[in-house]
Design goal:
The protein is an alpha+beta fold and 278 residues long. It has helices at 47-50, 57-60, 100-118, 191-203, 265-274; strands spanning 10-11, 24-26, 28-29, 32-38, 41-43, 62-67, 70-74, 87-90, 130-131, 138-139, 146-147, 152-161, 164-170, 181-184, 207-218, 223-232, 245-252. Helix content is 18%, strand content 32%. The strands form four sheets. Strands 12, 13, 14, 15, 16 and 17 form a six-stranded mixed sheet that branches. Strands 1-6-7-2 form a four-stranded mixed sheet. A hairpin with a 4-residue loop joins strand 15 and strand 16 (223-232). 31% of the residues are buried.
Length: 278
């Protein structure tokens, strides 16, 4: 999966330190990121690449995280020369670009970028939020409100029936990859209850023997995904929620039209079932 970057080590402890010339700059504009992209290989700019045109870049940078001895910083605005071959690319590039550890760092930085952008002002009194020096936290000096990064828990559900698995396609992207049942956990419910509710809401089926498989940070949607396998309980007739899904169909193990990819928990769960390893 996208976070599997061994032998590189992701270190997300908040240990702010001044950036150095070789520190890595992460710069985003909406859903675009500044990268050099050549033959599916990406490179992020370093401070030394941008310092001449951005004299305050060292002071304005926000520490994000570290991978091995590489430190990554968020920068809010930059000027850059086209001669450096850096350009703005859609963040979807992180699904496929190499090296994988840079794609993971880029999409993880994007999640933090969104959080900082969405909490520039206090939601309680409207004053500008300030950066804490010891924790990854924003605080309001006026009303003492504190904001920490929020992660949305969600489930990925593989519904099985003997040698069959239920696969779906989302209504908003019917022509794209096959998926599994998915949904966000609501306030007041366990993740197991989320599994049961989402399956019932999206395809009208009951399930039993819910088994946790694995989790995955999914920064494309600020989500912590939790994967579950479960078994059909009762009728296999699908009642499709057409607002959520364009397609839901049972597939025998031998006819699953999905091949392994590096990114997602969904793909890994489907391939495990296809290979009979669940």
């Amino acid at each position: 999966m996208i976070q599997d970057i061994a032998p590189y080590q992701f270190q997300n402890q908040y240990q702010p330190q001044p950036p150095q010339k070789n520190s890595i700059v992460l710069y985003y504009e909406g859903k675009k990121v500044l990268v050099r992209h050549e033959s599916n290989h990406i490179t992020f700019p370093k401070f030394l690449d941008l310092e001449r045109e951005n004299p305050t870049i060292y002071e304005d940078a926000v520490y994000l995280f570290q991978i091995d001895d590489m430190t990554f910083y968020l920068v809010e605005s930059v000027t850059y020369k086209s001669s450096l071959d850096f350009q703005l690319e859609d963040i979807q590039i992180f699904r496929v670009a190499d090296p994988q550890y840079l794609s993971f760092s880029g999409i993880t930085g994007y999640q933090l970028y969104n959080w900082y952008q969405n909490h520039r002002f206090c939601g309680r009194c409207g004053k500008q939020m300030l950066h804490d020096s010891k924790e990854r936290m924003l605080y309001c000096d006026e009303c003492k409100n504190m904001e920490f990064p929020k992660i949305c828990p969600a489930v990925i559900v593989a519904v099985t029936d003997g040698n069959r698995i239920l696969m779906t396609k989302y209504a908003r992207s019917a022509g794209e990859n096959y998926a599994l049942i998915a949904g966000f956990t609501e306030i007041g419910e366990t993740v197991e209850e989320t599994v049961q509710r989402e399956v019932m809401e999206e395809v009208g089926l009951r399930v039993k023997n819910i088994r946790y498989y694995k989790s995955q940070p999914w920064s494309f949607s600020d989500t912590l995904l939790m994967g579950f396998y479960c078994e059909l309980d009762g009728t296999d007739i699908v009642t499709l929620d057409c607002e959520e899904l364009a397609f839901a169909q049972w597939f025998d193990r031998g006819s699953i039209p999905v091949e392994p990819s590096r990114n997602s928990l969904t793909n890994e769960m489907i391939i495990n079932f296809k290979n009979g390893t669940t």
